[in-house]
Write a structure and sequence with these properties.
This protein has five helices and eleven strands, in the order ββααβααββββββββα. The protein has about 200 residues and is an alpha+beta fold. α2 runs parallel beside α4.
């Protein structure tokens, strides 16, 4: 199986991946992290080569199906061996650790969407779009701690607007109550025993 988080030491561009047939692209996804061309500037290309000879061989393969069968399990096991060790795991938060002998790119099977924030050794990092829409985090070598936190987009403005609406409703309710009370003080209601006859009135 391929874990939630695993480390790649090779990268390829989306443009190159799209140029390959489906089976070759599947193998490439096991051998390298596929990232957007615009993200290359954020990657240490001295450690993560964008075009290793292995991928150049892919275009010359005559028996892709056999290579796929022979290598799929091997590459999957290699990725599993580099898996991030999960610590805390909740619906909107997770922590994990991974040990790297050299720099790599941590692939997380989390869709690239707004709301996620990632921290590497307590330093916030910007994720890279990896494998056509998932999360990738560049990591230095050594023992690395990763933390991911998810906040619903526009949650804070939504709460503020809701509280403001509730406050406005309470103010209108209080104004209505005070208005009715003031009116009752100015014109007191008639009592049943009030004499409304005008027989003694002189004109």
């Amino acid at each position: 199986y391929i874990p939630m988080g695993c480390v790649y030491h090779r990268i390829a561009t989306e443009k190159f991946a799209r140029s390959l047939p489906d089976r070759e692209r599947d193998l490439l996804a096991l051998e390298a992290a596929i990232i957007d061309e615009k993200a290359l500037a954020a990657v240490d290309l001295d450690q993560l080569t964008a075009r290793p000879p292995l991928w150049q061989e892919l275009a010359a393969l005559t028996d892709v199906d056999q290579r796929y069968a022979d290598n799929f399990k091997q590459h999957a096991e290699q990725l599993a061996a580099s898996a991030m060790k999960l610590g805390e795991f909740q619906q909107n938060r997770f922590t994990g650790t991974v040990h790297l002998t050299r720099p790599g790119l941590l692939f997380l099977s989390i869709p690239m969407e707004k709301g996620w924030r990632f921290f590497v050794n307590d330093q916030r990092v910007e994720p890279l779009r990896t494998h056509f829409g998932f999360i990738g985090l560049p990591l230095a070598k050594g023992e690395v701690e990763i933390r991911g936190e998810y906040f619903t987009p526009l949650l804070a403005p939504g709460i503020f607007i809701s509280l403001f609406g509730l406050l406005l409703y309470c103010l209108l309710l209080l104004l209505t109550l005070f208005s009715k009370k003031a009116k009752s003080l100015v014109t007191p209601p008639l009592r049943p025993d009030d004499d409304l006859t005008f027989s003694d009135t002189k004109i």
